[in-house]
Every structure is written in C-alpha cells, then in structure tokens.
Amino acid sequence: MDWDKLQYFLTVAQQGTLARAGAALQVDATTVSRQVSALEAALQQTLFERAPGGFNLTAAGRALVPHAEAMAAAAARIRSAEGGNTALSGQLRVSVSEGFGNSFIAPRLAGFVAAHPELEIDLVASSGFLNPSRREADMAVLLARPRKGPLITRKLSDYSLGLYAPAHRPDWQEAVATTPLSRAGVPVIGYVPDILYAPELDYLGEIEPGLRAGVRSSSILAQRRMIAGGAGVGVLPCFLAAGDPALVRVRPDQVIARAFWLALHRDVAPQPRIRAFIDWLDSEVRESRGLFVPT
Length: 295
Description:
The structure is a single chain. The chain is an alpha/beta fold. The chain has 3 domains: about 80 residues, Orthogonal Bundle (Arc Repressor Mutant, subunit A); about 100 residues, Periplasmic binding protein-like II (D-Maltodextrin-Binding Protein, domain 2), CATH 3.40.190.10; about 100 residues, D-Maltodextrin-Binding Protein, domain 2 (3-Layer(aba) Sandwich). The protein is about 45% helix and about 25% strand. Strands 3, 4, 5, 6, 7, 8, 9, 10 and 11 form a 9-stranded mixed β-sheet that branches. The protein has a two-stranded antiparallel ribbon with strand order 1-2. Helix 1 packs across helix 2, helix 1 crosses helix 3 and helix 1 packs across helix 4. The longest helix is centred in the first third of the chain and has 23 residues.
C-alpha cells in the first residue's frame, strides 16, 4: 500500500479539514484532496464523509486509521535509526473532566508543550467525555473504569472530595459543623440532577442521606465560584479547592472517595506521542499526590 497516500489520509483524519491537513504537510489543500481521492479509488472505499464543517471518517476510514498509524510509527522508527528527525508531531486529543482539565492539567501543560513543540494538543475539558472507543479522542481521563470497548484502562489516581463553605461566612461554617444541612438554614450548591454526565457526581447523599441542592449548576467550576462568592456550601474535589483563600473546608473528617481512570484505544497505545503524554501526566500526578488525597 502506498505510504504517501496513507500519510495524507492519516493527516486529514487527525486534522479534520483539507486546509489544516495541507498546512501540517506543507502542501496545498488540492494536493491533499487529490491524494485522498486516489487512495479511495485504489481501495474502492469511501473513507470520509465530506461535510461543510470538515471531513468525517466513515466506518471504512475508522478501520483504516490504526493501520495507517502503525505505518507512521514504523516510518518514525526508520527515521530514528537513520538519524533523522525524531521530534514528536501530529495531533493529540485528550478528553478530561472540566475540573481536572482546567485546574490541574492546563496550568502544568507548558512544560510538555515546550518539550514537544511540533505536537498539536487538543485538551477537551468539559462536562462530558469524548469516547476513545469511537476514536473521538486519543485518550480520556474518566470518573469510572469503562467496562467495554477495545480499550486499555488503568487507574490514574484516587482523589478526595469534601464539603466547603465561603471563608467570609464563619456563621455558616459553625452551623454546618454542628447541625445537619437539612436543618442548618444554609443553601446547598450542587449539580443539576437530571443532567449529571456521570453517576459518580451524584454524591450529596454521601454527605447526608436525601440531601438536595437548592442552587445548581452543570459546571463544577461554576459551583466553586458560587461557594466562594457566598451563594451556599457544597462539595468540591480537594485538588480544585486547595489553596483558595475564599474557601474553607468544613467537616474535614467527612471524606468522599473517587478515582480518575485513564482509557485509550488499543490501537493508539504504541504511538510515541501517546506514550509521551501518559508519562508526563503520570509524573505530574505523582508529584501532586497530596492535592488529590490530602492527609
């Protein structure tokens, strides 16, 4: 199979549009289009659905990606053996929860970016996850271990959550410490129950059975701001609240335990860019162990 055409195919699959693929390959978009069409003709298969927003992989295209990636890895090894350029390149898409992505990964990412300047990194940090099984992301950091799909999974880290109050409301801090929340007269902040994106976030009942939030948001970052601003008390991951002078942890003996799980498609696991990011993330998490599970 013609590696040149496969390289064009793989770059379009990674970049999503002809223009971005052309920029990555340093050729014009018409050349990319011609090479992809030639590959489809040679295989007698449609590899992409052409849409106004870009190129979307068909089932045949998704099946071809791991083979193209394997050839890309082999080509990189050959270049390395010949003393060629071994810098990591291409696109790396990581799906993470909003809190973990924005408060932990994003502030630390500069070192990884500086070490691998030719990588294009998509940090998808939002309420909800992209699915590595369907190749929507190269990897995901999830709140529960996936039970199906062609995935490699392992625990990344345990983490703790606790009950937090605004620092400027010592009256609330005292009330919450000595009185059940249902009778303390203090607003409770939490997730919107009917749009929880993961059952692991339904944890108010672990603070008090039957506890409900009266002030709600789908965003943990918004909840943090609401608590700090004095809208109520609520549960936050300790790594998200750590070091914020506007927050005070109440009931410190009451701990909610959860874990982050790393998941990636089996076909992308050998890719050097994947291994490099995982090694970096493992190192950052190990060095910050006290943030995730405070003693």
